[in-house]
Each structure stands twice: as structure tokens, then as C-alpha cells.
Design a protein that fits this description.
The protein is α+β, with helices and mostly antiparallel strands. Helix content is 23%, strand content 17%.
Length: 350
Amino acid sequence: MQPIRDVSQRNACLADDPEGAASRTTTAYVVQKGDTLSKIAAGLQRQGLVGSTAELVRRILTLNPQIKDPNRIEKGDTLQLPAVPAQAPQRQAESKHNRLEGYFVRFPMTPAYLPPLLAEKSGPSFSAGLAAMTGKAPAPAPAASFLRTDGKPFPTSQDGTPRYKQRDMDAGGNWGDRYLGDKAAEPKRIADKGCALTSVAMALSKLSGETITPGVLDAFLDTHDGYVGNSLKWATAGQATQSPISVTKTTTWNLDAIDKELDAGRPVVLAVDYKVGSSGGNVGTDHWVCLTRRGTDGVYFANDPATGAEIRFQKQSDGQLQQINESGGSPPKPYRSSGEFATFSKAVQS
């Protein structure tokens, strides 16, 4: 996304427009190709506007009641955005000697940034500032909060991965009725065939901290040649986040590689087989889930896009993973890994 530009006066960048920029509460912005509300909000953050991505998205929606579907904004639309103060700090590289000063210029000592025991879970802590000064790595950031457009949080698994449901028809999600790829060729809705898309959206959200819902991801793929028929292009999906993420899908089973990813805190999207007569290619894939972490004794945890619930797998003697039967006996036949999986890593910038 291009830097947020003020088109209300001379289309000048806010940072270069001291004549009145500080006194305005909003500024006009023309939507560019590939923009989403999350990307626009992230751009405002980079220019120094205080608030999480989700909070800034809600502010944008409040300023633009004409937006009927938050997952769809069109190129050329004009939006009113919160104005960035003229003196808003920019996120620039800091030398070792002024790193602490940079922390507290960017993040003033308001109650939200007091030491962790006194503060809410947002922003860097005082201890993180001290760690920056001494050259030590800051403490891990708190888990991101993934919010619906109505402000309510999505449920998450224990590790903080959002639990999206592909059949979500609620007002805060409402992506289940969206069609995957080429509707004319073969109409398939996210609710019916969007398990891979939904699982990838969960992984991308966890890794980026952005709320990349299935609807947001589908809208991005629609405008970036992200489908072959109604099958997503895995590599293209990784471009939907503010900082691109490399997505690699493989049919060569390697549980050690999966373990390595999970132990590093990176989700893995796992293909499973659970019914006879599968149409999922040679390996028998019927469904996809998002593996989030592993525990002891060969137990693995996953978010299931079919139900929005967290389920468990057990390592089998042949090295495959099979779902542990939960109360209720769903699905009729336990999920079993089919051999395909997808991994995620930070994309190398050219």
C-alpha cells in the first residue's frame, strides 16, 4: 500500500503538509489497488497514528458509514481517515545510543505503556524500552486481538491463533456466502469449500498480527489473480499481509519439518482425509485444518474451520497424525493426515 496521502488539499503527504494538517481531524484518501482496511490502518500506524490495527479499522468504519461490507472497498473510492498529527513520530531505524529515546518518543508513558503488571496488554512495556537501550531483545509482544467489524473479538486457540469458521454468516464476519475464484466456471462458496482458504487466513493472522479473515483474504485473491478456478494460489495468499509471508505447500510428508515449524511458533496448514471416495486428488485430501502447536506424548492441536473449534491429533505409529475422538463423535470418521501440508515463513525482499 502506498503512504497515506491527503487529497483534501493538494494531495500532499500528511508529513509534508504543516499548513493546517495538525488542525484537521480527518483527511481524504483515495483507495488504491490491493488496499484493504487493515492495510490502510497499518499505513496510518507507520505514519505515527496511535492505536492497534483493529482499533484504527473501527475508526475508519465510523468515519465512513457508506461502507456496507468492510471486506470490500473499491479502487478509486474516497475514504475519510483519521488525520495524522503533523508532529507524529515516524517509525525509523534507531541507533543503539538513541534507541531508548526512540521508544518513548514513539510510545509516550501513558497508562497503556506502564510496566506490565500495571498496564493493559497493548504496546511495549517499560521493560521493553530498557531492553532496547541495553541492546537486549525486548520481551515478546502480547498476543494480538483479532476483532470482528462490530468490535467483538474472534475466539482464539491457546497460542493466540484466531479460530475462524468457514460457514460464518454473522454480521461481524459474513464471508460464508462469498464465492471462491471463478463463480461462472464452478460456483463454490467459502462456506462449502473454503477450508483451505480459512485455514490459511488463520495462519496469516497469527503470524502478521493483522485480522486477515477469510473474507479479507478472498477479496485480496480476487484482485490479485489468486485463484485457478476456485482453488487458491498458495504463494499469492502470502502477499495479503502488510509484510509478505512465503507460503509453501508440499505433498512430501515430513513430520519432523512440521514439528520444527510448530516449535518455532509458526502454524502449519494440514490436509486431512476423513471420508471414503475422496475427490481430493491422489493423496485423498478431503479437508484442511490449521495446526497451531504440539503438546506432550505426541498430541497436536489444530483449529478446525468446519466448526471453528480447537481439536486434537495424536501421532500414529506410522508417523501420520489422526484426530483424537472428542465428545460428540464429530466428524463421523476421524481426520487423518493425507500427506499434504503448507508452511509459512517471512518472504525474502528483493
